[in-house]
Write a structure and sequence with these properties.
By secondary structure, the protein is an alpha+beta fold. Helix content is 44%, strand content 10%. The protein has 15 helices and nine strands. α10 packs across α13, α12 crosses α13 and α14 packs antiparallel against α15. The radius of gyration is 22 Å and the shape is globular. The N terminus is likely disordered.
Length: 424
Amino acid sequence: MRWIARRKSALIRASSAAAAAASVRMTARASSSTPSWLRARGFISKPDCGRFGPRPAIAAAPPPSRADAGAPGLRAYCAPVNTPLETTSDARTRALAAWCAVVLPSARHLRPASDDASFRRYFRVDSEVGPRVLLDAPPELEPLAPWLEHSGRLASAGVRVPRVDAVDEQQGYVLMEDFGELVYLPVLATGDNDQLYDAALRTLLRMQLHAEARDLPEYDHQRLQAEIDLFPHWLLERHLGMPLSPARRALWVRVCSRLIGNALAQPQVYVHRDYHSRNLTPPAGPDGEPGVLDFQDALRGPITYDLASLLRDCYVAWPEAYVRRLALDYRGRLVAAGAVPTPSEAVWLEWFDLMGVQRHLKAAGIFCRLYHRDGKARYLADIPRVLAYLERVCATCPELADFAGFIGEEVLPAWRTSAAPQPV
C-alpha cells in the first residue's frame, strides 16, 4: 500500500474542524463545463449532458429519466440554489455536507453530479475557488483505499486523474478536482470522435506502459469465470427465465474455455476495467489528455481488455471497419513503443474480438443484476446493443458460431418479448 502512504502527506484528514479548516489551502482554477476547443465547434454543455445525460443518436437508446438516475431518493439530495448545505435530506448526505463545510468553507449549492453502478455517489459544489466534486463512498460497502491507491498509481504514470484536495477515509469522503460535467458519450455525437479516441488511446498506452501493475490482483481463471457466469445467472435465468439446458450448458462450457484461454494468453498489464465513454472526460485542448474516472477496480490483466471496453463500448456502437481500424492503430502504437510483445494483426484482432465477448457477457449480466438486485433500471436499455455485439462477433469465430446462433435465435427474441421493467 505504498501508493497510499506516499500520498497521505498531501491529503487533508478532517479529524477536527479546527485542524481541517486551518490546513486546507486551495487555489482558484478556471473552470468551464465545456472545453474551449469544443465550444469553438459549437458544442455547448447543458446541465443534463453529464455522465448520465442524453445519449447521442449513435447510442440508439432513450435518455434516462431523473427519477431513476441514481439511488432511491436521489432528487432529495439536491439543495436548491441559495439553500444551505446543512438542509439536505438524509443523514449521510448531511454528514457529508458538514464535512465539506469544514474543509471547503465557501462551499455552496450541493447537488448530485452522478452515481455509478455501485454504492458510490458523486456530488458537485460551488465555491470561491471554483467547483469541486465530492465522492461519498460508504466504508462498509465501498472502501476508499483502492480508489486512493489507484489514484496515486495513475497520477505517477502521468495519467490525468482528479486531484485530491481533502479526504476522510474513515467516513468515506473525498473532495476532489472537478473535470466538468461532460464525459465522452454526448460529445462523440458531434463528429469529433477521431480526436477523442486518439486522446483516449494515448492515455491507454501511457497507462499500460507506465502504471505499476506487478503487485495488483490478477485477472485469473477464477475471476474471469465468475464474471462470465453473470450472464446465465442474471440475464438468462433471472431476467428471461431461460435456464440452460444440458446441451446449452455444454455449449456454455466450450464458450467459457475459449474466452478464458484467450484472456490468459495475452500479455498482462494494468487494466482499468471500465475504460469507456462514461468514464472519460474530454481533453482541455485538442492535444490534451482526457480525464480518467472510476479506476478503483483496476487489476493486472489482458492487454486488449481496456481497448475492447473503449471501442466496443456498451453505450455506443460504431461501424465495424472503424472499430477495427482503431484497434489496429493501437497495436501500431504498442509496436512503436516496443515495450510489450505484440502479435500479428490477425492474432491481435482475435484477442480483441474475444476479449470484447467476455466483457459483454459480463456487462449484460451486471446490467440485469443492477435492475433486479439494486433497482437501477436504466442499464436495461443498453442490453440489446450488447447482445447484438455478441451475436455479430461470435458469428465471425468458428468456435463460437453455435453460441452466436443461440444469441440470435433464442436470447434476442426472448429479450424482445420480455415484459418492460417495472419499478423495483
